[in-house]
Amino acid sequence: MLTIAETPFSSRLFVGTGKFASSELMARAIEASGAQMVTVALRRVDLNNPQDDIMTHLDRDTIHFLPNTSGARNAEEAVRLARLARAASGTNWLKLEVTPDPRTLLPDPVDTLKATEQLVKEGFIVLPYMNADPILALRLQDAGAAAVMPLGAPIGTNLGVQTALQVEIIIEQARVPVVVDAGIGAPSHAAQAMEMGADAVLVNTAIAVAGDPVRMARAFKAAVEAGREAYEAGLGRPSRQASASSPQEGMLTENLDFLQG
C-alpha cells in the first residue's frame, strides 16, 4: 500500500490526462489502468465549470484529483495557479511544475524549491516534479514536500529511466515517497523504476498516444505490479562472473569415463 500525506493508495500507477484523442477514451484508459491518482493540467480544464469535458469524465469519488501547474514559468506563476486551483476545486493537493524553457520542459530547481517552501506554508500537499538531483530531493523533503517526482527523461520523450543512477540515490535517501515521472515510454520502463524501489510512476504520453490506449493502460498496470512484486521479493545482484544454477558435483559427465574405453 502506498501512502502519501497519510492517504493510502492501492495503485502505484499515476496517470496524466493530456494527449488523449477524446475524453471518453481517456476515461476508459484510466479505468483500465486501475490508477487512483490522476493529474490534470490547470490550463486545460475549467474547474469552475461542472460541465467541463475532462472533469465530467473523472469520478472524484474513486479517483484522487491532482492538479498540476504545467505551464508555470517561475515560482510566482506556480503559486498563483495553485491558489486558483484550490479555490476552484477545494483540493490542496498539487503537482508542482515549474518549467521555464518550452523547448526542454526541464524543471527549474531554484524556483521549484522556492515555490514548494511557499506552498507548504500555505497548507498545500506538494508533490514537486524535479530533475533527478539527489541534493535537491533532500532540500525539497526538508521544505515539506509530501513526495518527490524525479524525471526519468524529458517530458514526452518515451526514453525510459535515463537517470537511473541518480534516481537510485534519491530512493536510497528518501524520507517521502518517490514517484518517477516523465520519460516512461514502455511498460518495461515502469517495471524497471519499480524494481529499483520507486514507490510509484506517473505515465501519460505512452498510454495516450498508443494505438490502443486502453490495452496499453492495462499493460502498464501489470508492469507496475510486477516491478513492485520483484522489488519486494528481493532481486539477485548482477555479476560479471558466471555462476552455475545447478551444483557442479555429481554432474553426468563425471560418470561417462566408460565411453572413452
Give descriptors for this structure.
261 residues; alpha/beta; 5-stranded parallel beta sheet; 3-stranded parallel beta sheet; 15% strand; globular
What's this, in brief?
The chain is an alpha/beta fold. Helices cover 36% and strands 15% of the residues. The chain starts with a strand and ends in a 28-residue tail after the last helix.
Strands, helices and their partners?
Blueprint: E1 2-4, E2 7-9, E3 13-16, H1 23-33, E4 37-41, E5 64-68, H2 75-89, E6 93-96, H3 109-121, E7 125-130, H4 134-142, E8 149-150, H5 164-173, E9 179-181, H6 187-196, E10 200-203, H7 205-208, H8 213-233
Could you tell me the number of beta strands?
10
Strand content: 5-15%
Distance between the termini: 64 Å
Order of helices and strands: EEEHEEHEHEHEHEHEHH
- The low-pLDDT segments are none
Rounded average pLDDT:
89
How many helices? The count is 8
